[in-house]
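Entry 14. Structure prediction run on the chain below.
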Amino acid sequence: MSDTGAPMHERRTRLAGLAWQDAGSPPETLAGIASSFKDIWQRRELLGMLTRRELKARYKDSALGFLWSLARPLTQLLIYYVVVGQFLGAARSIDNFAIYVFGGLTIYTLFMEIVAGGTGSILANAGLVKKVYLPREVFPLATIGSSLFNFVIQLAILLAAALLVGTMRFDASLLFAVGSVVLILIYAAACALVLSAVNVYLRDVQYLVEVVLLLLMWASPIVYSIEQVSSVLPEWALQIFIDNPITLAVLGFHMTFWSGSDLGITAADLAVRMVIAALVGLVLLFLSQRVFSRLQGDFAQEL
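Output returned:
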């Protein structure tokens, strides 16, 4: 007993001499978010490791590997082009319909993968959450990295197709694609943070998210144009529809890779709307992190 008691006493003495450090972010709003960002930055290597792990796990034991990331969007493109474009005649009112559809699908798939993956990220890493302390935000944020990898592959195909068809212009319209990606990352990160936390307490959230993401896809001008929407909705509803950040991101990709001439909105108007949406999104991201921080205290008990 004396042999084991002495080392234990020494450890207690050393621990008593250490300064107290609070785990997690403080409750104050500004100090709390600054502390969270600091914790995430200090563990950026862990964030990268989680991103690589998610990518490897997604395509583990697969012969084609990352090429499977193209299977769903290319299949969707084929279905929409044939069924909606040819059978239902949408291609007759939209020039270069395949580029139009694939542009919208590419940017929307980025949003969908981040939100869907982020929603279940805390549950998927329950073992780590219960055993060690680390900023829990890294789990939903890790889905951003893996989703961006798939996005880059799809973007490369879109870029090649747009150059081949000749719908892409090398001018200021390229900035709309950058703005679209920024918009999607801001809003998708905000949604992923809140939904991942709520999903710990209400497990049905992840299934509800799948339904909402499907509805949001059809509520975005991916397989139809703004002109077609304006013929159905009154002016006030049309403006609300356009101000949807996902719609703005899709229109931004269309402006860059398809053509801005028949988009139904001017470049200047779209640019102003995207800037305003980005500013609003930053506020929502800030609030989402605070909600996440409030809810994460009981993650280990709920898991």
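Residues 190 and 287 are 8 Å apart (CA to CA).
Filed with the rest of this week's runs.
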